[in-house]
Structures are given as structure tokens and as C-alpha cells.
Amino acid sequence: MAIQRPTTDAGPEGNARLRALDSLQLMDTPPEERFDRITRMAREVFSVPIAAVNLLDDEHLFNKSPQPQGRMRWPRNQTFCNVTVQQQDLVVVPDARQDPRLGSLPDVVSGRGVRFYAGRPLSVPNGQRVGTLCLYDVRPRTLDEAERRTLDELGRWAERELQDSAELDRAHEVQQALLPRALRGNRLRTGRHLHALPQRRRRLLHLAGTPGRLDLTLVDVMGKGTAAALMAATIRSAVRAAPAGDPADVLNSVAGTLLEDLDVTGILATAIQATIHTGNGEITYADAGHGLSRIVGPDGNHTRLPAGGLPLGVGEPNSWAAIPARLEPGHTLICFTDGLLDLYGGTLQALGHMADIVHEAKDPASVMKNSGNSPPACVRTMTSQPSPYAGPFSTHELPDSDFDRGHGPVHRQTSAISLRVFPS
Length: 424
Fold this sequence. Notes:
By secondary structure, the protein is of the alpha+beta class. It is built from 10 helices and 19 strands.
């Protein structure tokens, strides 16, 4: 039988849920990389053809992050997530054709031919369930206990992003209230960055070099204010204290050291730890939910370094593995936090702009030269390239700086570094 119109949005409780959803200001907004990276990872981890972050009002489901891209709006009572958003726990449906609640849905009897579904309700800090993180497959299957835990952890990551949306909107309200009356409502905003609000540093960008080798650390703590800044400093100390080893060993050591701190605070952090051998361009890296590293070729074409694990605070210690890559002569490795995407619209389409910038930067400033016995090469950093959205940005001259030192409010949201190996 068909699912009936939901009753959870009737009365005071339903009104409170809709107010919580409205406060996020995310319904019918364009895709954002901070959600897309979660759904991309969900597809990869669970080997499913479809994953999505959805938001539900009283009548519609809005697909905030569809993987792959597709239809964005659906009648709520024709969706799997209509059931999930009314539950407190995971909903796992091994075969929708055999489920009396779902068997007559359009997505089952026609459309995408969905058989398997798993959904995790997403709540905001006041406990209101406003959306879902969902997996879909066209074949029957189920999730074991480890997979259920992973989906729950990915859901917690998505909730952290929803919480950041709420905090930024509340900060904007406070900021507006403190302005002189004549200026209220006239503040400029770029993406979701508030120009007049200083942000405490919550990123770690560190580059250390020895002859023939560079070790790169890029960490982005999810959250704002003092708590995120304190955790960034704590992660910085843990990275420096980690025994020397391959990048996966470093991330696993940091996760083990901070296991209790990350669990108690509920703070998550994405990270990439990489070793670049400057003589032959070999790269070994471990990725904790970062997924924003690219190699740009001399022709401007770019490829993604695949993400290999969940963020710190979500993934369990010893869950990260080393991944090999290679940086050929004339190719450039660029690593950045997601604030850089906001300078170009907030989605992965921004990567084309960044690839062009890297490709056109013919004479970047030298940072470090290889002094080993391997074939001569140098590693350089890009500087002072323009952004069509928010003025100039720069990647920052390391190795002696741990945090980005950009000028202007957007820069304080962003860390990036670009390394190129040139033949002599």
C-alpha cells in the first residue's frame, strides 16, 4: 500500500522541526562540496550506485547532495526518507519489494528500480530530525554491524556540517544586530563566509623537508570558534609527536592519541598526510575524509587523488592505509581546504578554475630545492593568483609556518599549497 502523508509535522513538535529546518537556510540551495564529499565517500565505501544527503519539509524532499547528479525535488510521501526522518535510528531495507511500507513507491516499481535502501536520520543540535543520509542499490543486500557503524559515523559527519550551517546563520543574525541601524542588512557575504566576523584558526598546514623528501600535513577542523581552534592546536601537537613513518602510520597514531578527546568533544577533522619524494616524484599519502587533492598536468588536465578513509573523530584508529601516487615532471600537486572552493561557487566545478590558475602560473616562487643525489628538481609554491569571486588568494609560503597567513576574511577560511616538480 502507499505510504500516507506524514504526521510528524503536525502540532507544536512538527512546527518546531520545520523551524529548525528553515533556520539552516539550505532548502533549494545549490550543491556544496562539504556535503558532496560525504556522499561521494558513501558511494565508494558501500559500493552503491546512489547516495544522497536529503532535507525534508512538510511536503517535499530536497536532495542537497545527489550522487550521481539528478533530480533534486520529490514529493515527500513518495520517498523512502519519509519513513527514515520519523525514526531515531538507522532504517535498513534489504529488499524494498518485500517491504509493505515501501513496495509501492515509484522508485521501486519503476523509476530507478531500487531494491536496497539504508537511511540514517540527521538531527540538528536541538534534536529535531531535519534530513537523512541515504544509500540506494538496485540489488537486494544488507549491512553488517561494521557497515552500520560506518553509516552512523558518516551521518554524524553530515550532522556536523548541518550544525556549522546553523552556527553561521546565527552568527550572521548577531552580527546584523550589532551593526549601526543604517547598515543593517547591507553586509556582503561570499558563499557562507561572513566578512566582518574574525574566525579563529582551525586549520593546520605544515610542510617539513629533508634532502629528497617533503612531508605535508593539511588538517581542517570542522567547527568554529575557540573549541575548533583548541582542537586544531591539539592535533598539531599530536602530528608533531607522532613517530616518523609512512603517512598512514602518522594518521593512525594521531587518531589513537586523540581518540578520547575527539569522542568527548564530538569534533571531527579532515586531513591528508603525504610524503613526496622530490627526486622521482613518488607520493605516498593517507587521506582522512579530505578528498580535495589534485594533480594538475602541464596541459591543464587534472586528476583527483582518491580519498581513502573517514575523518579523524569518525574513523577508528588503524583504519587508514597508505595510497601511492606519482608526480611527473611538469605536474603540480595542489592540496587545499574546502574554503577555497567557496571562492569559486562552492562545488567541484571550481576545480577547473583552480587547474587553470595552476597551469598558467609559469614562474612561482621557489620554496625548497632538492639537494640529494637524485635527478635535480625543485619544489615551488604558487602565489597571488586572482579569484573572480572574492579577490586574490594565495597559497602560503612554508616550511616555517604551520597556519595559513592570508590577508582578508576569506583567506582566514582557507589553507592551500601547490607543489610542482620541474626538470632543471
